[in-house]
Amino acid sequence: MGVRGLQGFVGSTCPHICTVVNFKDLAEHHRSRHPGCTPSVVVDAMCCLRYWYTPESWICGGQWREYFSALQDFVRAFTAVGIKLIFFFDGMVEQGKRDEWVKRRLKNNREISRIFQYIKSHKEQPGRNMFFIPSGLAVFTRFALKTLGQETVCSLQEADYEVASYGMQHNCLGILGEDTDYLIYDTCPYFSIRELCLQTLDTVMLCREKLCESLGLGLADLPLLACLLGNDIIPEGMFESFRYKCLCSYTSVKENFDKKGNIVLAVSDHIAKVLRLHQGEKKLEEILPLGPNKALFYKGVASYLLPGQKSPWFFQKPKDTITLDRQVISMSSDPESKQEVPMCTDSESKQEVPMHMNPESKQEIPTCTDPESKQEVPMCTHPEMKQKLPMGTDPEFKLEASICTNPEIQPEDPMNMGPETKQLVTMVSDPEILKVARTHHVQAESYLVYNVMSSGEVDCSNTLEDELDQALPSQAFIYRPVRQRVYFLLLGDCKDGTSTCPAVKEWFVYPGNPLRHPDLVRPLQMTVPGGTPSLKILWLSQEPGIQARRLDTLLACFNLSSSKEELQAVENPFKALCCLLIYLFVQVDTLCLEDLHAFIAQALCLQGKSTAQLVNLQLDYINSRAVQLGSLLVRGLTTLVLANSACGCPWRISDFMPWNVFDGKLFHQKYLQSEKGYTVEELLEQNRSRLTKFHNLKAVVCKACMKENRRIVGRTHWNSQHTGRWGRQSPGSHRTSSGYSRSGQGQPWRDQGPGNRQYEHDQWRRY
Question: Where does the record place Basic and acidic residues bias (predicted)?
């Protein structure tokens, strides 16, 4: 994350650029200079997750009540001194950064393998040095912050650019995060979340002006330095020989400087003493060994230019552009620059698609054709959304449109000026539906829905899964049929009534997946009683009975339409949990009665426990299978968020937020007790009022499973008849379903050859 070697250089060689500051003092100073203006801090939430997650236990699936309480304390600390927080989350991975994303996910896989090795050897949680954030933490943190009344934004590109733009344009106190890219952007001050003391609100400010002074550079030189050192766009090895030559010619090396520190100083010295002699006279490719990487390098430098900023290192006239594949890289973000409107060829249609320029950002605005008017409608990136838009509201809501006819009306939109050109063609052509999906995405009120509809590409990071466990499948496969039905719902009418829908590209991490290419997953047609309603009906209609249709559609996503009556009888917040448990136990036949008892018992006992009681709960030991089951359930809750969002929110979001239905340690305790043969009364801690609820919930799950010919049996009975059918994938193989699929439910996905894996009707059925 950030610029290679810069964090270490600052710590070892330039510690004087770090200054201890106090947020309360900064806020008071801001108010004195700007009376009537609330001081604000823009937060890069993705950088902060591991610092926010303070619970001691992280291995069991997450201590969500404790985590929610920690977030509450964080917000209160800033609110108490009158500081407003604005939280930004990554909404998608830009194509130029996918390789880096894959590299980190594969590294995480190796770390997870070591975690499970440790658990099996020591039967305890590893130390904090092996800490791995619980599955779903980023997704549920968005909803937690919204529950706490905080302004939360989900980006339309990687969040760091939007964070830097917002901070600059809204005169923020600064940016709170942990990413050296914020030392490169010419924006408001950058504060470290790692150094933050919440009790005193002291932290460290990293001063880019002092960094420039130490390196002999100007602020406008920092993007060039970042790209020569390597960042998320420019691979570290691309300029390795160049850096080595700089190091050899650098004469001011001191013995106490580490090698990476030397490299930062050497490259800076070369920029200041050699390259600057030709600044404005020669093109970068004439003074740097860019070779075939010229376009990528220009893109890397331009990615740091915020609205209204230029780079003195671009020799080209303002109207010039560099084309990289289907992307057009602007050489300036200055609204005064009069750039030509380039034409970009769509490789699918072989037609030229005009790219309209946003005069504020000089970012190319992709266009889509309105089927009614036959006119091109420019698509502009999102404004700062302040108005809540619930599903099913009047379509004439007073919000800036995601499809707008005049992009000049948003002069302060921090997200208009992204360095990465947006998709030329979206998966869905209905501008009204795209507008609603986009609004919910930006306001962090949905999950993956807009990604599917706009780019047709989704991703899911690592999950705590044991690659050596042959009995439990990866969550990526268990929940894939649900996602496929959601894809059908979102894209079903994408081809004007034809039966074929485009495949969705899934970058899902699972054991054995080398992530060289995305899995191509085709939508799976589903059966909804009364027919599958359109998105306009699900999202915008306020007709009587629409909530029932939304619920019918949601249950159809999980293939549970036949269990609607039983599920409706379940009280909140257990309705969504029951839906998830039924789906899990039908899909995975290695789950047994003891597992069901543990899942239900922990949900019931959780309702009567305080956060302090959960903190003090102690486990006898850690079981690797229970660790994986905890993560599996939490990933199921994120899948519920996706399906519920796509169906127009028939269920309250709060009913499947983990702090209301799941606690990792508590589940682990119930799992261990159930495995030892504890009675139901003992599992429920001798609380008779929970006993009736337990048997009711168990009956709902078991009855629904029996409708699918799935009888849930105890572990002893199961072991005598089954050996388990779920096998892990090796890098050179693909998971296949050994067993049967019930009639009409499709076929196992098939190997289409390396790099072209297309999965359709992906039913992971029981053996």
Answer: 350-363, 758-767
Biggest CA-to-CA distance, the chain: 83
DSSP state of 197: B
Amino acid symbol at 614: L
State which of 232-236, 394-398, 687-691 shows the largest mean pLDDT: 687-691
The torsion angles phi and psi of 763, rounded to 5 degrees, stand at: -105, 110
Which residues, 6 or more positions from 591, have their beta carbon under 8 angstroms from its beta carbon? 584, 585, 712
> Looking at this protein, which amino acid is placed at residue 1?
M
Give the integer Cα–Cα distance in Å for 99 and 127: 30
Confidence of residue 758 (pLDDT cuts 50, 70, 90): low
CB-count exposure of residue 406 (10 Å: 0-12, 13-18, 19+):
exposed
Residues 278 and 201: beta-carbon distance below 8 Å? no
The 3-state secondary structure of 600-659 reads HHHHHHHCCCCHHHHHHCCCCCCCHHHHHHHHHHHHHHHHHHHHHHHCCCCCCHHHHCHH
C-beta of residue 734 within 8 angstroms of C-beta of residue 755: no
pLDDT band at 280 (very low <50, low <70, confident <90, very high): confident
Sequence-ordered list of residues with C-beta below 8 angstroms from that of 424, at least 6 positions apart, any chain: 326, 344, 346, 353, 355, 366
* Contact between residue 516 and residue 507 where contact means Cβ atoms under 8 Å apart: no
559 Rama sector, left if φ>0, alpha if ψ -120 to 50, beta otherwise: left
Token representation of residue 631: 């993560």
Give the integer Cα–Cα distance in Å for 122 and 348.
54
Closest to 360 measured CA to CA, from 295, 321, 305: 305
Q: Residue 176 phi/psi, 5° resolution?
A: -105, 120
In the DSSP assignment, the letter for residue 306 is P
Rounded Cα distance between 665 and 655, Å, is 20
Contact partners, residue 640, CB within 8 Å, separation at least 6: 576, 579, 580, 651, 656
| Integer Cα distance of 704 and 486 in angstroms | 22
In the DSSP assignment, the letter for residue 514 is -
Residues 550-570 as b or e (16 or more Cβ within 10 Å = b): bbbbbbbbbbbbebbebbeeb
Instruction: Report the distance separating Cα 315 and Cα 286, nearest Å.
Output: 10
Nearest to 518 by CA among 102, 64, 229: 102
- Pairwise CA distance, residues 205 & 222, whole Å: 18
- How many whole angstroms from its chain centre is CA 694? 35
Spatial separation of the C-alpha atoms in residues 638 and 627, rounded to whole Å: 17
SS3 (DSSP) at 460? strand
Judged on CB neighbours under 10 Å (0-12, 13-18, 19+), 423 is middle
**Calpha distance 263→248 (Å, rounded):** 10
Q: What is the DSSP string of 648-705?
A: T--S-GGGG-HHHH--HHHHHHHHHHHHTT--HHHHTTT-HHHHHHHHHHHHHHHHHH
Quick: pLDDT tens for 680-699.
999 999 999 999 999 999 99
Q: What is the pLDDT of residue 333?
A: 52
H-helix or E-strand spanning residue 554: helix 546-557
Q: Using DSSP bridges, classify how beta strands 352-354 and 343-345 pair: parallel, antiparallel or unpaired.
A: antiparallel
| Cβ atoms within 10 Å, residue 376 | 15
Cis peptide bond N-terminal to 573, omega within 30: yes
Task: Say how many Å lie between the first and final Cα of the chain, rounded.
Answer: 43
User: How far apart are the C-alpha atoms of 162 and 88, rounded to whole Å?
Assistant: 8
Structure tokens, 330: 């602007």
Closest CA to 233 of 242, 223, 246: 223
Phi, psi of 510 (to 5 degrees): -150, 155
